[in-house]
User: What shape does this take?
Amino acid sequence: MQTANRVAKNTIVQYIRLMLSVLIGLFSIRIILNSLGASDYGVYNLLGGTIGLLTFISNSLSQTSIRFISVSLGKNDIADIRKTFNACFTLHLIIAGILVAILEIIALFLFNGFLNIPKDRVISAQIVYHCMVLTLFLNVAVTPFKAVLVAHEKFMYTACIGIFDVLCKLAIALIISIAFIDKLILYGILMALIVIIDVSLYIGYVLFKYREEISIRNNSKKDIINVVGFAGWTLLDVFASVINRQGYAVLLNKFFGPVTNAVYALAGQVEGNLYTVSSSVMETIKPQIMKSQGAGDANRVLRLSMTAGKFGFSMMSLLSIPLIVMMPEVLDLWLKDVPQGTVLFSRLLVIACMFEQLTRGLVHANQAIGNIKWFSIIVSTIRMTAMPISLICFLCGAPAYTAIIVFLCCETLGSFSRVIVMSKTTDLKILNFVKSVFFQIIPPFIVAFIVSWISYRFFHDIEGMIAVCFITATTYILLLYTVGLTKEERMSINGMIKSLINHFIRPRMSTKIN
Assistant: This one.
């Protein structure tokens, strides 16, 4: 029950951080755009995009560190934890150095006419670029320290740093708006300064709180090779996602031009914001999956992975159902002029992301177990076939939305293939997964979708849209609780609710009475 309570609190903390980050972030971007101007803002994002091509390496390394450190914590062996942290830190330091070297070599060509930057802004762009390289180095190097906090489920502290980060960015936006010196250079330096402060907060807290788990000494080659091997196969999975996303942008631009690119980008924004809701749930459950593997509880690993998939899908679809139904009206409220095709693109991408979430928990279970080679190869290959298939369709004269349909099909097949692969490498039973996840979670989704669609027929103004959301949410939550959850999951939910009442409501009531 304590685990359920901790997951509930961590989920709420993640949601609060997410809401504040999105709201403050959107406001900050608006100020920065007005202060820098379109040209300098475009230069900054162009440089950030260039460096961002290598960030998928950092993402895969982050997953690797979280996995190894969490599993070591599950073993409750201090010596093993120290050895694991040491191997992860050494690997990250080496990779960070390699990335810096690559980016500095690339810089020799980027500013020599390769990038389309106004001549009078080249020096400013170079300074900003070097600031970004520094931040990439720090972000990669500090990853093992972040992994320690995630493994210990210190989401409150990481959320505080996240909120501090966005508040600092808001302050920078306000400073830039009144600055009289080169605003692009000032912006780049101040953004790097935020990262330095964040890194100091992460390292300082870990050294203060978990000093006995930190060890930086000579590594054995075996430990490094073990971590590198895992990171390599994790990298393949991340690489598949990056190739699909960036590759589609290139394909659509090549065959249909920049307007279709804009449609794809807007649809990606809609899907991305919904994905963060699901991922926040996954992040709170993932450490428990890893620790269960370290403790040798294989049954709990699989059980939690299925629960994670159900909860992730449910939390995302709770918002996605009314959004899919009312997509034209929502986009009209968000955008003044909605490009043709944005509604269809957005709906298809959201559906693709939802079905991918159904088996997302199995990814964390597979990482915890450590047997990821064939899992990564099979699933990534299926997902990456979307690109060549879409290319063939375009060469045959297919319309732009065909690519998103192909993407949806490949993502869904890739998601279902996880179940098959896990059934071959673990004790997971396909029939049990289908009964516990698909048959329990899909019927409430279908019924709630139908109710939402019928309600939508009667409402079209703002008040009506709110009514549709309320009706859909009420119907879906009741169906999920009564049909979509197992008895054990309902007990966990009840425990979470009681814990939240005891933690937040009863103390306030007692204070008022006194």
Notes: The radius of gyration is 24 Å. The mean pLDDT is 80.
